[in-house]
Amino acid sequence: MYDLLVRGGQVVREGGVEQADLGVVEGRIVDVAPELGGPAREELDARGLHVFPGAVDIHVHFNEPGRTDWEGISTGSRALVAGGGTVFADMPLNSTPPVLDRATFEAKRQAGERESYADFALWGGLTPRNMDRLPELAGAGAVGFKAFMSHSGLEEFESPDDYTLYEGMKAARELGLIVALHAESDSITSGLARRIRGEGGRGVRDYLRSRPAIAEVEAVNRALLLAEETEAKLHLVHLSTGRAVALAAEARARGVNVSIETCPHYLMFTGEDMERLGAVLKCAPPLRDTAEVDALWTAIREGRIDTIGSDHSPSTLDLKTGEDFFSIWGGIAGVQSTLAVLLTEGREHGLSLPDIARLSARTPARRFGLAGKGRLDPGADADLVLVDLDTEWVHTTDDLHTRWKFSPYVGRTFRGQVRRTLLRGQTVYQDGTFPNPPQGRFLRPAPVPQEETA
Ligand SMILES: NC(=O)N[C@H]1NC(=O)NC1=O
Ligand SMILES: [Zn+2]
């Protein structure tokens, strides 16, 4: 007897897409096959729809506790499930205090267990201030350690220097956890910003000039050397240039344990869009030109990019307003739109549906040891997204479930719409509504063998 039978959807799995039923018992998929016999307590008709694994967004900033006026786990996770996500991993900033020890970790975990509509993992921070706390963060269940090679935007989350990063990577290696790096050279970005601001530069172009591609390429190169030397597992977040991706892919080919993330905004927007739309598109690293966008799509098609994370990092509207583009908050609100971007732009750029499932769900779940997530196979959690692939829709402000109705994706036309999202067999989102109270669970990473790269 199944608890749930999802009937007749086009099921998107590693090997391809086939019409099949999914049988669910106690929140887990037990059978996937055409025309499964019943009985079932509940049946769900998915004919005409595609069934994807719930997206696993390994890079969000929901900013709770402490900055719930910027976002919060409740609104952030509602937006995630509305966009077809079922798992997120929250960064150790911009919550305040940031997650630098067990107490701050547990406070965030409790907030998530109270409020999250999705299952979740948590990152710990790696800063000069908490090097002695990495083992306790690992013990608390951190999915990895996040560090910034440039200024994080927040005084309370400092960047390690090269020596500290080197020691941090050695410690992470011992603990078996991944180090995620924001790789932009602080020396280059802050040096340029000082000079350009000294000359009176305050505009979008000035900001773009202060964070050139070489700042990313240089930092990625240094990070790869340190990872190679320490044998740490490295995850390069939000790569924005073809050159940085190429360097990381070369390092991987010679055995460095590195995975590569990019974000939907680097695939969809350019610096010119940033000039046109302003603060809604301010982020770091900044948006590039169409040649870089094309290079990233090529890298995705050719399998060099492993995961797509949103880097959802909103703030209050007043921090997104002002004459000085340098002092406006850097961060893009995109947690609800990742799958929409992949289904629309991704398909146009030659990705198959299994490619989209791999980038958005399977690889992040596997790389970060999130057992039972990211795939529609017997034994996995019944984290399902029912998508109407043919519907074309224009994203409006009313669609947004985030705290602030401010997103660069508003006004864009998308093809493929999330109709329903299930977390462990329970509907968490359906056509604009959230029919059940939050029941997200904390996910502790399972050990991933050191030799297994993404
Ligand atoms: N602190 C923070 O969220 N920073 C993020 N925002 C952004 O645009 N890039 C980042 O790393
Ligand atoms: Zn981030």
TrEMBL record:
Residues 428-454 are annotated as: Disordered. GO terms for cellular component: cytoplasm. Its EC number is 3.5.2.5. Pathway: Nitrogen metabolism; (S)-allantoin degradation; allantoate from (S)-allantoin: step 1/1. Its cofactor is Zn(2+). Keywords: Hydrolase, Metal-binding, Purine metabolism, Zinc. GO terms for molecular function: allantoinase activity; cobalt ion binding; zinc ion binding. It holds the Pfam family Amidohydro_1. Carboxylation allows a single lysine to coordinate two zinc ions. One of its GO terms (biological process) is purine nucleobase catabolic process. Binds 2 Zn(2+) ions per subunit. It is an enzyme of class 3 (hydrolase). Zn(2+) 1 binds at residues 59, 61, 146, 311. Zn(2+) 2 binds at residues 146, 182, 238. Residues 51-428 form the Amidohydrolase-related domain. The modification N6-carboxylysine is found at residue 146. InterPro entries: Allantoinase, Allantoinase_bact, Amidohydro-rel, DHOase/Allantoinase_Hydrolase, Dihydroorotase_CS, Metal-dep_hydrolase_composite, Metal_Hydrolase. HAMAP family: Hydantoinase (MF_01645). Homotetramer. Catalyzes the conversion of allantoin (5-ureidohydantoin) to allantoic acid by hydrolytic cleavage of the five-member hydantoin ring. Catalyzes the reversible cyclization of carbamoyl aspartate to dihydroorotate. NCBIfam families: allantoinase, PRK06189.1, pyrC_multi. Belongs to the metallo-dependent hydrolases superfamily. Allantoinase family. This is Allantoinase.
